[in-house]
Amino acid sequence: MNKLTLxxxxxxxxxxxxxxxxAGAYAAEKETYGTETKIERDSDGNYTRKTTEESEDENGTxxxxxxxxxxxxxxxxxxxxxxxxxxxxxxxxxxNKKSSKTKDRTSMKNGxxxxxxxxxxxxxxxxxxxxxQQ
Length: 134
Hints:
- The longest helix has 27 residues, at 2-28.
- The chain folds into two domains: 1-30; 31-133.
- Strands 1-2-3-4-5-6-7 form a seven-stranded antiparallel β-sheet, with no helix packed on it.
- The protein has one helix at 2-28, and strands at residues 32-41, 47-56, 62-73, 79-90, 98-109, 112-121, 124-133.
- The protein contains one helix and seven strands.
- A hairpin with a 2-residue loop joins strand 6 (112-121) and strand 7.
- By secondary structure, the protein is an alpha+beta fold.
Protein backbone atom coordinates (compact mmCIF):
# COMPACT_ATOMS: atom_id res chain seq x y z
CA MET A 1 0.00 0.00 0.00
CA ASN A 2 2.96 2.29 0.39
CA LYS A 3 3.64 2.17 -3.36
CA LEU A 4 0.02 3.06 -4.11
CA THR A 5 0.07 5.98 -1.67
CA LEU A 6 3.34 7.23 -3.12
CA UNK A 7 1.99 6.95 -6.68
CA UNK A 8 -1.20 8.82 -5.78
CA UNK A 9 0.82 11.52 -4.06
CA UNK A 10 3.07 11.92 -7.11
CA UNK A 11 0.02 12.02 -9.39
CA UNK A 12 -1.59 14.67 -7.18
CA UNK A 13 1.57 16.80 -7.36
CA UNK A 14 1.64 16.50 -11.17
CA UNK A 15 -2.05 17.44 -11.45
CA UNK A 16 -1.58 20.37 -9.06
CA UNK A 17 1.46 21.59 -11.03
CA UNK A 18 -0.52 21.37 -14.27
CA UNK A 19 -3.43 23.26 -12.74
CA UNK A 20 -1.07 25.95 -11.47
CA UNK A 21 0.56 26.31 -14.90
CA UNK A 22 -2.88 26.48 -16.51
CA ALA A 23 -3.99 29.11 -14.03
CA GLY A 24 -0.98 31.20 -15.00
CA ALA A 25 -1.98 31.02 -18.64
CA TYR A 26 -5.50 32.13 -17.82
CA ALA A 27 -4.22 34.92 -15.58
CA ALA A 28 -2.18 36.31 -18.48
CA GLU A 29 -5.30 36.41 -20.65
CA LYS A 30 -6.92 39.41 -19.03
CA GLU A 31 -7.67 42.92 -20.17
CA THR A 32 -6.64 46.06 -18.32
CA TYR A 33 -7.99 49.58 -18.71
CA GLY A 34 -7.16 52.87 -17.07
CA THR A 35 -8.22 56.47 -17.60
CA GLU A 36 -7.30 59.81 -16.08
CA THR A 37 -8.77 63.26 -16.67
CA LYS A 38 -7.30 66.55 -15.51
CA ILE A 39 -9.28 69.81 -15.82
CA GLU A 40 -7.96 73.33 -15.20
CA ARG A 41 -9.92 76.59 -15.39
CA ASP A 42 -9.05 80.17 -14.57
CA SER A 43 -11.05 83.30 -13.82
CA ASP A 44 -10.55 84.67 -17.36
CA GLY A 45 -12.54 81.80 -18.90
CA ASN A 46 -9.55 79.79 -20.13
CA TYR A 47 -9.97 76.05 -19.90
CA THR A 48 -7.76 72.98 -20.32
CA ARG A 49 -8.83 69.34 -20.17
CA LYS A 50 -6.49 66.41 -20.68
CA THR A 51 -7.75 62.84 -20.79
CA THR A 52 -5.37 59.88 -20.94
CA GLU A 53 -6.56 56.31 -21.55
CA GLU A 54 -4.44 53.17 -21.53
CA SER A 55 -5.57 49.63 -22.21
CA GLU A 56 -4.08 46.22 -22.85
CA ASP A 57 -6.06 43.31 -24.27
CA GLU A 58 -5.65 39.59 -23.61
CA ASN A 59 -3.13 39.31 -26.48
CA GLY A 60 -0.86 41.98 -25.00
CA THR A 61 -1.77 44.74 -27.48
CA UNK A 62 -1.36 48.12 -25.79
CA UNK A 63 -3.47 51.09 -26.83
CA UNK A 64 -2.81 54.60 -25.53
CA UNK A 65 -5.05 57.58 -26.23
CA UNK A 66 -4.49 61.16 -25.14
CA UNK A 67 -6.90 64.01 -25.82
CA UNK A 68 -6.16 67.60 -24.84
CA UNK A 69 -8.70 70.40 -25.21
CA UNK A 70 -7.55 73.97 -24.66
CA UNK A 71 -9.79 77.04 -24.82
CA UNK A 72 -8.25 80.52 -24.61
CA UNK A 73 -10.54 83.53 -24.18
CA UNK A 74 -9.42 87.16 -24.18
CA UNK A 75 -11.10 90.25 -22.73
CA UNK A 76 -12.66 91.16 -26.12
CA UNK A 77 -14.53 87.84 -26.24
CA UNK A 78 -12.28 86.38 -28.92
CA UNK A 79 -11.71 82.68 -28.47
CA UNK A 80 -9.31 80.02 -29.71
CA UNK A 81 -10.03 76.33 -29.23
CA UNK A 82 -7.41 73.65 -29.85
CA UNK A 83 -8.04 69.91 -29.70
CA UNK A 84 -5.05 67.57 -29.91
CA UNK A 85 -5.49 63.80 -30.05
CA UNK A 86 -2.67 61.25 -29.91
CA UNK A 87 -3.25 57.52 -30.37
CA UNK A 88 -0.80 54.62 -30.42
CA UNK A 89 -1.37 50.90 -30.86
CA UNK A 90 1.42 48.45 -30.08
CA UNK A 91 0.71 44.73 -30.67
CA UNK A 92 2.86 42.63 -28.35
CA UNK A 93 5.96 41.16 -29.98
CA UNK A 94 5.14 42.22 -33.55
CA UNK A 95 7.36 45.34 -33.73
CA ASN A 96 4.71 47.26 -35.68
CA LYS A 97 3.65 50.10 -33.41
CA LYS A 98 1.27 52.54 -35.09
CA SER A 99 0.63 56.10 -34.02
CA SER A 100 -1.46 59.04 -35.12
CA LYS A 101 -1.77 62.66 -34.07
CA THR A 102 -4.61 65.01 -34.90
CA LYS A 103 -4.76 68.73 -34.23
CA ASP A 104 -7.89 70.82 -34.81
CA ARG A 105 -7.88 74.55 -34.14
CA THR A 106 -10.74 77.03 -34.33
CA SER A 107 -10.13 80.73 -33.83
CA MET A 108 -12.95 83.28 -33.56
CA LYS A 109 -11.59 86.83 -33.66
CA ASN A 110 -13.36 90.06 -34.70
CA GLY A 111 -16.18 88.11 -36.36
CA UNK A 112 -13.75 86.06 -38.43
CA UNK A 113 -13.53 82.28 -38.00
CA UNK A 114 -10.39 80.37 -38.91
CA UNK A 115 -10.24 76.60 -38.82
CA UNK A 116 -7.32 74.26 -39.32
CA UNK A 117 -7.02 70.49 -39.26
CA UNK A 118 -3.90 68.36 -39.43
CA UNK A 119 -3.51 64.60 -39.12
CA UNK A 120 -0.18 62.77 -38.94
CA UNK A 121 -0.03 58.96 -39.14
CA UNK A 122 3.24 57.18 -38.34
CA UNK A 123 5.17 60.41 -38.88
CA UNK A 124 3.59 61.32 -42.25
CA UNK A 125 1.08 64.14 -42.73
CA UNK A 126 -1.98 62.59 -44.38
CA UNK A 127 -4.48 65.46 -44.00
CA UNK A 128 -4.00 69.20 -43.72
CA UNK A 129 -6.73 71.79 -44.23
CA UNK A 130 -7.15 75.49 -43.46
CA UNK A 131 -10.42 77.43 -43.81
CA UNK A 132 -11.34 81.05 -43.16
CA GLN A 133 -14.88 82.39 -43.06
CA GLN A 134 -16.23 85.83 -42.28
